[in-house]
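Let's practice the habit of predicting before peeking. Look at the sequence and jot down your guess about where helices and strands might fall. Then scroll down.
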Amino acid sequence: MQVVPTMRKRSWNAGGKLFATILAVAGVTVACLYAGVNPTTTGFAYLITVLFIATGWGLQKAIVASLAGVLCYNFFFLPPVGTFTIVDPQNWVALAAFLVTAIVASHLSASAKRQAMDSLRRQLELERLYSLGRSLLLDSGDQRVPVRLARRVAEAFELRAVALYDLSAGQTHLAGAEDLTIPADILNKVLTGEMKNDESSDCRYAVIRLGTKPAGVLGIRGVVSDTAVDAISSLVAIGLERARSQEIENLAKAARQSQELKSTLLDAIAHEFKTPLTSIKAATTTVLADDQFTGQNRELLSIVNEETDRLDNLVSDAIQMSRIEGGKFKLHRSLIAPNEVINTVVAQMRARLEDRPVEMNVGRDLRGVSIDRDLIQLSLRQLVDNALKHAPGHSSIGIGADRAGTEVVFWVSDDGPGISAAEAERVFERFYRGQVNRHAVPGSGVGLAVVREIARAHGGDATVTSEPGKGARFVIRLPLAKEEIE
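Done guessing? Here is the structure:
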């Protein structure tokens, strides 16, 4: 419905300009005849008229003006006047020279105008691209970014229709006065590089790429160059990438805030447990110090006293874990012998170890090393707890320390199901839990991540060596200071 009026308007404009061209030549002819000017001046008047027409309406109208001017010049000003006959050969030369000069001058004038128009069009496209890029950079990222991108492209370039197909979401977002659909067959051709322009629908297409990976297709209908289409698709790609980066950043920020909140709550709750535990410990210690308190009640109270110590250690570990998870911890190094660390951990875990055999192995050449005793003991308790969860009942647990070059190595081994090579690195990721016994073994997937964080805070690392079905050996490697190496 909209094509017919447009074609009629263009046809009327072309006919009107052609009529005006002939009328201008006729006007010059009448003026020169009325003024009685000589043929040379008349020729220059025709030439100037042709140049003006070339500048204003282009080469085609200028050629028509040149031919009309030659005919009028011959008929009205060259003898014999009133006929198209040319007697003097010099007049042939003059007519030919006039016609060639008029056509060449018209061509040059039209070419200069076309170049000027192209320059203005490129300048306008650059200004619109700048405006579009600026609006995209100032845009806030959310789920409606593709919709706004399509609308801003249509507004910036005054396009009749814009279609933005988001490949990841499988949705097409439209903007502009007209509807533009991208059929599946055309979409595939554009993505494979077989098509860029569709003459039947007066549409141009470009692939939206994030790096080298296609992220969608941009289809437009309107007056814009192929170079501008590619530039627009690049800006749209930047807008989509920025929106997705912003979304990832927001999710990460929310996760960090959630983690900090959890760590803060856990730290507060753990500290609240400390007060009653201290009172219970003080009460049981006082009663047990009385020699008159004997018999079965004393045994039961001793159990309460031991379990109070165990619960106090668990609460202390929870406080430490929450601080480490929140990144709020500092190392308090002191010179400590590794065998003291091992013995303390085994003593603290004795109630959990029960009747399991424990194999302790500490290198004889190990002297005092500068470490944070509490954090390293926490790491070893986490590794022993991990071994107890996965190793079969009554199987032995190995724990020890040794020197390996410029490092001190703490290790815990078990006879559990082992870990595959693919999972050997992932087990230290936060919240990751192994495929074997994932649902049967309790845990949060945080303990091993904390072990690695503590090791790396010391300048070392935590690793695991294992084979499926042959147990696992978790190792904490800590670098020795120069004075400790010598």
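How did you do? Residues 3-126 form one domain.
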